[in-house]
């Protein structure tokens, strides 16, 4: 019997197993797994070693349901718990595997790493500016250390991600049972990196690229432009993939966006959707070659 929801395994062990299985099934992705696997593992290990304090619970928090029903994500109304002190600990954990994974921007990554370790970057100011999208502050900080702004923003996104994921895991349940008909994440407001089909008839769950929260979204509506005209939607899959159309890319010809989608209805074991998205990189390439753009940039779809 298929499950109604996606069953995840986000542990270090689960990721190790998923990476091994990926290489066995798709040996041609060995290089990608070797390059990017350590970053996923480092992120998961950091979360296991530096969990949120016990005091961070939802009992004392109440979500403004009126604002939520008007499309305001949870982080926008409740804010995020301050994670500045732990942020200093994530930098040395994630920057080394990022330097190995993203060799094309290694020089910038080294400048950023040095900026953090020598206090050339004001950590508090830059995290605040990143979360509040204050472009001018970020521009100033990037210029100070001589790094490119897009790379600086990408790195900050990766460094902030484990905190967003941990806080979303606690705050996400506040949205249970509430209606959310938007294509962006009800917790943090970002877009999905990947979707999974689960349960009777294949209900679609979108997984947020930034906080990993997942939410139900109509299978026949485009999450970017809300178009639901079937004739404008189609999908492609990799003929060489051992699972064929079980992994596919859904595209919308109205706004030219695409979204990776996994059919998990026949799946027995829990899945790691980050590893799954990495393993679908050939579909990212295919969609981008056809002129479609992802809903959101991820490490996997930006390097294609
Ligand atoms: Zn989110
Ligand atoms: Zn669209």
**Multimer state:** single chain
Q: What does the largest sheet look like?
A: 7 strands, mixed
Give me the number of helical elements.
12
**Domain tally:** 2
Q: What number is the mean pLDDT?
A: 92
Classify the helix fraction into a percent range.
Answer: 40-55%
Distance between the termini: 37 Å
What general outline do the C-alpha atoms trace?
globular
Question: Would you give an account of this structure?
Answer:
The structure is a single chain. With 304 residues, the chain is an alpha/beta fold. The protein folds into 2 domains: 126 residues, no CATH class; 124 residues, FdhE-like fold. Helix content is 45%, strand content 12%. It is built from 12 helices and 7 strands. Strands 1, 2, 3, 4, 5, 6 and 7 form a 7-stranded mixed beta sheet that branches. Strand 5 and strand 6 form a beta hairpin. Helix 1 runs antiparallel to helix 2. It is globular, with a radius of gyration of 19 Å. The mean pLDDT is 92. The site of one zinc ion has 9 residues, from loops. The site of one zinc ion has 8 residues, from loops.
Question: What is the strand and helix layout of this fold?
Answer:
Layout: H1 12-25, H2 30-49, H3 65-69, H4 74-78, H5 84-101, H6 106-117, H7 123-131, H8 135-145, H9 149-171, E1 192-198, E2 203-208, E3 214-216, E4 233-237, E5 247-252, E6 257-263, H10 273-279, H11 281-289, E7 293-294, H12 299-302
Parallel strand pairs: 1-6, 6-7
Antiparallel strand pairs: 1-2, 2-3, 4-5, 5-6
Helix pairs in contact: 1-2, 2-5, 2-10, 5-6, 5-9, 7-8
The chain binds zinc ion (ZN) (2 copies).
